[in-house]
Write a structure and sequence with these properties.
This protein is of the alpha+beta class. It has seven helices and 19 strands. It has helices at 2-23, 41-49, 59-62, 140-147, 152-174, 205-222, 287-300, and strands spanning 28-37, 68-70, 81-86, 89-99, 103-110, 113-124, 127-137, 179-188, 191-201, 232-239, 244-253, 266-270, 273-281, 311-317, 329-335, 339-341, 344-346, 351-352, 368-370. The longest helix is centred in the middle third of the chain and has 23 residues, at 152-174. It is elongated and about 100 Å long.
Length: 372
């Protein structure tokens, strides 16, 4: 019994000594890792800036298939957040600052340990240099855990290294896998729609769409307005020299409505038109390739483009349906002029798009206007 007593006292003293040693260790920490990602800076920035993409590259999520993720309504930009609960613990992330295509600042809580996270994105040879840095102060339990697992720099550093490698692999496939097909001449049928119209930088159209489309759809839900298909963008002008475009972000609706005076959401009517249809399967960064291919088709076939507006992009399969960029489908329509021969107007070999039933319009000239 005396021996057992001594062993117990020895274990107790060892535990106390270990606790004192761990408690007196420096709790402040800084962990930093960098990697060159084989993708454009804006592409990498936008992917990291949306928390819904983190499950594709964050190693602590990838390696725990049973992890439960929770997303609020906002997952992009300042104020965005998400949380997780897994076998290694629980945590949450909050974005507190964003500088477009340059840096992101976040706050993370993980099992009682709070830390500040900083991302920077720099153009470099071979792609984008991404630096992921974390500073914080460990809780007592985190000190104990890391002491037995090689230290905080080793543990967190390995997690960041794996995650950055996953980010490079994911983007290399998802962003660079795409296909462009010119479908030919079609009749694009019309619809009523709700819209917001303004001038935007061409490079920021998709980002603006991710803000405007949900706003209009929410407006429809709140007012019991029935939708009539997928959102689309009308490019009224498209100046590749200045990089500016006047666009209408449109959500099709089944019945014509009147919006109240002063509303920033307006109504419109898309009239049927003849067009060159081109389908892009893949990330939106390849849109220009699809536009260029459609122009080549029109030139080769001597098809005159109608300058009434630049073109229309219809988001058939978008990020709201599937998160993989390689599977997004965007239909692009260039309006064309009907040919005129001996006073007779005709458009050859037009394929009819899927019919959209449009009720007889009741037009109020003060509230309603056609874009064409």
């Amino acid at each position: 019994m005396r021996i057992l007593k001594y062993i117990f006292l020895l274990l107790l003293l060892s535990f106390v000594a270990l606790s004192i040693f761990v408690a007196t260790q420096k709790g402040d920490f800084t962990v930093e890792r960098s990697q060159i990602i084989n993708s454009p800076k804006s592409t990498v920035f936008n992917f990291v800036n949306d928390y819904k993409n983190w499950e594709d590259f964050s190693s602590w999520i990838v390696e725990d298939p049973e992890m439960q993720l929770s997303y609020p309504k906002k997952t992009i930009g300042p104020g965005a957040s998400f949380s997780w609960e897994g076998k290694e613990g629980t945590g949450d992330l909050l974005t507190i600052f964003v500088k477009e295509n340059d840096s992101i600042a976040q706050k993370m809580n993980y099992d009682g340990t709070s830390s500040s996270i900083f991302w920077t994105f720099k153009d470099t040879i071979g792609g984008t240099k991404v630096t992921w840095k974390t500073t914080g102060k460990m809780s007592f339990m985190m000190k104990v855990y890391t002491a037995f697992n090689g230290g905080i720099n080793k543990m967190m550093g390995e997690t960041y290294e794996k995650s950055l490698a996953n980010l490079d692999k994911t983007l290399d496939f998802e962003i660079n896998t795409y296909a462009v097909k010119v479908n030919g001449l079609v009749k694009k049928l019309g619809t009523f729609y709700l819209r917001q119209t303004f001038t935007s930088e061409i490079s920021k159209v998709i980002k603006n769409a991710q803000i405007v489309f949900p706003k209009i759809i929410t407006f429809c839900e709140q007012n019991n307005i029935e939708l009539n298909g997928k959102p689309f963008i009308i490019y009224h002008t498209y100046d590749s020299v200045t990089g500016l475009t006047k666009v209408s972000f449109c959500v099709p609706i089944k019945n014509q409505i009147l919006t109240s005076s002063g509303s920033d959401i307006l109504t419109g009517t898309l009239e049927p038109f003849d067009a060159i249809k081109t389908t892009l399967t893949g990330d939106y960064s390849h849109t220009k390739k699809a536009l260029d291919k459609a122009k080549v088709y029109s030139n080769m076939n001597r098809i005159a483009i109608d300058p009434t507006f630049s073109h229309l992009e219809n988001f058939t399969i978008s990020k709201t349906e599937i998160k993989n960029p390689s599977k997004w489908v965007t239909e692009i329509y260039y309006p064309i002029r009907p040919k005129v021969i001996s006073g007779t107007t005709f458009t050859p070999a037009l394929k009819k798009e899927e019919a959209i039933k449009i009720p007889a319009p009741v037009i109020n000239k003060e509230e309603e206007e056609s874009e064409f």
